[in-house]
Each structure stands twice: as C-alpha cells, then as structure tokens.
C-alpha cells in the first residue's frame, strides 16, 4: 500500500491548548503504562503514543516497520485515538500479558439450560478478566413460572440469572485498569419484559449492566395504532409431545435467536406460545416512565440493525457491546478508535474558521491501517472470539469532539449547518476508510468472509429481493464480497457516492466487513483529548464535574473539568470568559451551547445525519433537564424510530434514583441528601457539600449513592 503524504500543521496556525490537570490525571490512572510496582514506564503522553505506534507497526513486514511506526505516531499526534484497551495494553505484554486490545465483545447465545447459562457465565468471567466488556441477550431464557421438566420445578426466570452475571462482573478483577462493563438486551415480546423494564427500580440491582430493549418495527406500529401486543416464548418439545395443538389460536410462528430444541416451519420460524396479550401502549408507558426516572432501558431498533448490517447474509444480531455502538453476532468483538475532530479546526472562533478536510482524510487513511493491525494482537481469551474477529476483521472507527468542533467553527449543535457538517464528517470517514480497506485487501488479502461461498436461501431472497431480480435462485452460491458490497443496503448508499470504489470491492473484496462506529469515548475524551465533547455529543456543560472510580477509595471522586472549547476560547480569545456570566467582559458567544439548552429533537437529528454513513451504530445519550416535561420526553423514542436510528438512550438527572457520571454543580447545589445515623437521627447535606465519614472525605452525593447502591468500600 502506498503511504499517504504526511502533512504537518504549521505551528503558526495552531496554538497548543495546555492539558488540564484532570485530563493528565485520568491518563495517568487509566492509560499510562506502569510496572508491577506502579512506577511509570510511559514518561509522558507522547511516550504512550510511541508505545502504541511501535506495537501496531510490529505487525507489518520487517522491512517497512520503521516507516509505518513513524506514520502511526504522526496519526496519533494529529488526532487518531485508539480505544482505551489499545492505548492501555498495546505494547504492554511484558507487564500484563493476559490483557486484550479489544474493548468489548458479545456472548455466545445463552442456552435455556442450567449448564448452558453457567457455561456462558464462565466465558463472561474470562472475558471481563481480560479487560473486555461484554453484551448478552437474555430473552432466550424461559419466563418465570415455566415448568422445568428435568428438575420437576418452576424456573425463576431470566432476571434471577442476570443477577448471577451481575455479581460475577462486580467480583471479577478486570485486567488493564478497567471495571467490568456489561449490556443486557431483552426482546420486547418476552413474557417477563415488565420485570426487565422495572429491574433498576430496585436499589443496587443489575448496576453492572446497561439495559436495552430489542424494539421491533411491529411493536412501534402497535404503539402508534394503540393496538394489542402479544407476549410470547417458544413452546418446548415436551409440550408438543404432550399433544399441544400448533394450529391453535394461542400459537404464533416467529423468528428466534436459536431453533435448538424447538419446532420450526419451512421458513425457519419457531412455534411460540402467546402467554398474554396486552395493550402496546401499556408497555410503552412502562418503558418511558422507567427511562424518565432511571435512564434505562435504552432502545435498540433491532430490525433496522439487521436490515442495514453489511453481513446481513451470515449474521442475525440480537445483542450489542455495553455502550450500544457495536451490534454484534455471537462472539463478535468491537475494535474501536476515534478521530479527534478539534485537531482539524483552523482559525477557531473567527469569521475565517474552517475545517482541514485534507488532513482529516489523511489521518483516517493511516488510522484505518492501524486498527486493522489490532486484529493480529487482539488478545481475546476465547477461541470463538478470536475466530470471529479474524474471519470478518470488523472494526469501528468513529470520531470524538463533534460538539466542541461545531462550536469552534461558530455553529450551533443541531442547526442545519451543523447537520450538514456532521453528515460530511461521517461520509468522508466512510469513503476514505473503505478506499483504504480496498488497498489493504490488494496488499494483504481481504477478510476471509469475502472469499467464502454462501448458499442463496429463501430467507436471503426475502431479505434482499434484488437477488431474485438479478437472476439468483435458491441453491445458487455467491461470494461474500458480492453479497456485502453489491447487496447490503449500506453499500448501496456508498455506491451512490463512489460507484467505482464499490465495484472494485465487489471484484476484489475489502480488508474488513465494517469500518465505522461512533463510541461514547467518555474517559478518552476527558484524558487524551483534553475534555473535548464525548463522541457525537455536545459538551455536557462548559464547567462541570465528573465522577471517577479511584482504586482504594470507598466512593467515587468528583473531578472538576472545563470543556475543551471553553479552554480554547479562554486561551485564544478571552481569558476571562465564563459560562452564564452577564459581565460584558466575560460573556461567551451565543453558539456556546451545551446539553442543557439543546432540544431532544436536535440530538436525534445530529445522530440521524451521522447514521447515514456509519455502517455499524452510534452510542448517543440525549441529556434532558431534570424538569423536562414527561409528555414531551416520551415522544423522543418515536421520533428516533421515524428517523431510522439503530439505537437511542436518554439521561435525566434524578437524585432519587442515581446521579450518573457527569453532574452539574447547580444540580448538586439544589439537591438535599438525608442520612440516618446509628442513633436514628438524621442529618442533611447539599449534594456538593463535603462529608467526613469512615476516615475519608466524600461529597454528600457520592456518599449517598455508594451507600444506597451497595458499592461503598468495594472499589
């Protein structure tokens, strides 16, 4: 592959914004390599970049390693930021040989049997120990009260088994300086769906999980029409052998993640019993009220996920990584990295501000090769995980700092100009990345899935009618690269932009099946990017606090931080500028917006603009004010479905439930926490007040949260 020309930014065009103390602190605690005695191996941030660049260039042929090491270091210094596991663990084998460079995985299908459930729990424990998060679907487990023939008893249902996974995650010591992270998905038609929706209303329950519902188009339609909704689960072979009539009114045929042990028809659909028919609006209101109060469950619009999946011909996706930006098949992995968009803003906050599109695409090109190299040093603990990532080589490049960049260019987040910018950023990343994927396929060979033959089935013909239009019939065989590049709905859109590129991939394949994904980038944005806005988000606020876990501390620690755009404005334009100031000498321009004054609709519109060109998915949190009207709030998800999103989550500060990771000083100031002492008396503190307890100083909010949720003293 020919190396791109590496352009250096003219020092006169870019003034370095000093790293704030909180950013350096997080880098030191989470990403800086240290020896077994906690002595730093990485002397500074640039040393961290050099370590990563060398580890990834060592994958290359011997004669070009030094060349690519230089190019990789250049990309890291100019905005490429690999995901946290890569930053922490690449080139660190001498000190922590059992760690992975992969952020997250998805479990194999959880079987509806005691041995299967416990086997997957073991696999999850090994995955978490390697430093990876993990996602599962639990609606494969029969509902509570169902008869278990082998035990002669009745099952306690999926939620009780989720409790086991939750405790395991909390207990396992995760390698690489990371606490365990899990995602649980659950089908909206499962008979125990109400229990799943309400689970987090119990203090301390399932707190090691993010929870998301698998929402179907059929359910959305039923909600809109105020129709009925069937809660169903597959019937067992024992029931059929006992004489159950499969033609009865209480039997429906549905797609299910597994057909093992179940009865299927000629279309592969599984016989399911209708346990209960309810009003769809009843379930919808339960979901919305829980989301309003507890920020969960999130939505995964699973039909859209599968329709737009590049590997539509060989995958049925039912789960995601813990933050939802990577919908994955069983044993799939998310290999992530983000480009810091603020690095390409020239002359910020002026009338002449512009975005350097040429350098941006150069960084994307080099970074794509870097992420592809991570596959070779994945360090995943399970055979199934390694086979899956090597077969498809999928990765997810995204960006961070979108909100900060929009501000630095003088636009407002959610305005038409910002939507246009967001779409172009995503499109240029997609097209440039796929072009590099084609070059890499020519140089190193395509992902194995590209060259494999796949049999055309009635199911494939149903999913993609164009196959029949082009003369394919059941029983024919087609190369994976043809099914992906010519017949995936995402690549159809890429073909509108660059038909020659897609035609070449049809013939030659691509190095990977997926290229783009936008992660939340919370600690990465705060640390290595000096607190640019997370992922696709606006800045949460321009001066706020972040709750971070400190090893050895009994509660989370509150760290004060400034947004990158505020730091930049103070450094470049006005050192006295402050948010909310009415002093003419301190006031900020009106394009300095944050999550507190951005409408939910604007959040969704930005996500939709990016999703057009993202072949995986996007982690996006719609932050709404505490006093947001519920009637306005509950329509957010319907609007997200209408805009064709693959997923959606919201967050509303609710001190009665929990406070979250990011908190505004005003919210803490306006919230009073009550503590009951041993003698039965009570004391009250404002959330931002410091409290001495058990030999340590805590903020009242963090102490209350730790005691309430049961994690006090367990870090």
Question: What does this 3D model show about the protein?
Answer:
- The chain has 715 residues and is an alpha+beta fold.
- Among the domains are: 104-320, Alpha-Beta Barrel (Anaerobic Ribonucleotide-triphosphate Reductase Large Chain); 451-508, no CATH class; 671-715, no CATH class.
- The strands form 10 sheets. An 8-stranded mixed beta sheet has the order 14-2-3-6-7-11-24-23. A 3-stranded mixed beta sheet has the order 1-15-18.
- Helix 5 (114-129) links the parallel strand 2 and strand 3.
- Helix 3 crosses helix 12 (357-374) and helix 15 runs parallel beside helix 24.
- The model is unreliable at 7-13 (pLDDT under 50).
CATH topology of the domain at 104-320: Anaerobic Ribonucleotide-triphosphate Reductase Large Chain
Distance between the termini: 47 Å
CATH architecture of the domain at 104-320: Alpha-Beta Barrel
Largest sheet: 8 strands, mixed
Provide the spatial order of strands within the biggest beta sheet: 14-2-3-6-7-11-24-23
Return the structural class: alpha+beta
The helix count comes to 28
Overall shape: it is globular
DSSP summary, beta strand count: 29
Mean pLDDT: 90
């Amino acid at each position: 592959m020919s190396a791109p020309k590496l352009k250096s930014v003219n020092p006169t065009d870019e003034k370095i914004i000093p790293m704030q103390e909180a950013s350096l602190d997080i880098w030191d605690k989470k990403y800086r390599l240290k020896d077994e005695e906690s002595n730093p191996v990485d002397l500074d941030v640039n040393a961290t970049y050099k370590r990563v660049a060398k580890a990834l260039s060592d994958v290359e042929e011997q004669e070009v390693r030094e060349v690519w090491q230089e190019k990789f270091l250049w990309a890291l210094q100019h905005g490429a930021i690999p995901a946290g596991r890569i930053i922490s663990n690449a080139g660190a084998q001498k000190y922590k040989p059992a760690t992975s460079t992969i952020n997250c995985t998805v479990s194999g299908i959880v079987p509806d049997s005691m041995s299967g459930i416990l086997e997957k729990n073991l696999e999850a424990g090994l995955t978490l120990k390697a430093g990876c998060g993990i996602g599962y679907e639990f609606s494969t487990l029969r509902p509570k009260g169902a008869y278990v023939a082998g035990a002669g008893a009745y099952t306690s249902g999926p939620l009780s088994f989720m409790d086991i996974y939750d405790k395991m995650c909390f207990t396992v010591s995760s390698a690489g300086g990371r606490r365990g992270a899990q995602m649980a998905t659950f089908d909206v038609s499962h008979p125990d769906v109400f229990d799943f929706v309400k689970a987090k209303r119990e203090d301390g329950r399932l707190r090691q999980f993010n929870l998301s519902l698998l929402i179907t188009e059929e359910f959305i339609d039923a909600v809109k029409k105020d129709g009925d909704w069937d809660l169903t689960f597959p019937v067992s072979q024992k029931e059929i052998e006992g004489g159950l009539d499969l033609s009865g009114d209480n039997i429906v045929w549905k797609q299910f993640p597994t057909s093992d042990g179940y009865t299927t028809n000629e279309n592969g659909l599984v016989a399911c019993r209708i346990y209960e028919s309810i009003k769809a609006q009843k379930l919808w209101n339960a979901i919305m009220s829980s989301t309003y109060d507890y920020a969960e469950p999130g939505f995964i619009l699973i039909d859209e996920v599968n329709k737009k999946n590049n590997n539509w011909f060989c995958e049925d996706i039912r789960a995601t990584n813990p933050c939802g930006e990577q919908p994955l098949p069983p044993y799939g992995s998310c290999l992530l990295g983000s480009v810091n968009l603020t690095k390409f803003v020239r002359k910020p906050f002026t009338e002449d501000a512009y975005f350097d599109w040429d350098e941006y695409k150069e960084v994307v090109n080099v970074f794509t090769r870097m992420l592809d190299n991570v596959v070779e040093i994945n360090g995943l603990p399970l055979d199934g995980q390694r086979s899956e990532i090597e077969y498809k080589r999928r990765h997810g490049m995204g960006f961070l700092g979108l909100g900060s960049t929009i501000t630095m260019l003088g636009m407002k987040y959610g305005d038409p100009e910002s939507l246009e910018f967001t779409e172009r950023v995503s499109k240029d990343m997609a097209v440039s990345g796929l072009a590099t994927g084609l070059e890499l396929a020519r140089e190193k060979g395509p992902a194995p899935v590209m060259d494999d033959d796949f049999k055309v089935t009635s199911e494939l013909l149903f999913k993609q009618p164009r196959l029949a239009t082009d003369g394919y019939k059941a029983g024919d065989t087609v190369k994976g690269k043809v099914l992906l590049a010519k017949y995936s709905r995402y690549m159809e859109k890429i073909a509108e932009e660059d038909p020659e590129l897609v035609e070449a991939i049809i013939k030659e394949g691509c190095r990977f099946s997926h290229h783009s994904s936008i992660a939340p980038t919370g600690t990465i944005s705060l640390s290595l990017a000096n607190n640019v806005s997370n992922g696709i988000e606006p800045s949460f606020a321009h001066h706020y606090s972040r709750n971070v876990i400190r090893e050895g501390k009994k509660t989370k620690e509150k760290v004060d931080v400034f947004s990158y755009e505020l730091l930049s404005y103070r450094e470049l334009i006005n050192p006295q500028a402050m948010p909310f100031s009415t002093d003419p000498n301190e006031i900020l321009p009106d394009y300095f917006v944050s999550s507190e004054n951005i409408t939910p609709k604007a959040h969704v519109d930005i996500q939709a603009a990016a999703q057009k060109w993202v072949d995986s998915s996007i982690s996006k949190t719609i932050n709404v004010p505490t006093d947001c009207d519920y009637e306005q709030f509950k329509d957010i998800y319907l609007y997200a479905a209408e805009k064709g999103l693959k997923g959606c989550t919201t967050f509303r500060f609710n001190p009665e439930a929990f406070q979250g990771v990011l908190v505004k000083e005003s919210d803490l100031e306006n919230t009073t926490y009550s503590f009951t002492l041993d003698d039965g008396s009570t004391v009250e503190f404002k959330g931002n007040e410091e409290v001495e307890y058990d030999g340590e100083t805590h903020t009242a909010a963090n102490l209350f949260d730790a005691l309430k949720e049961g994690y006090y003293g367990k870090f």
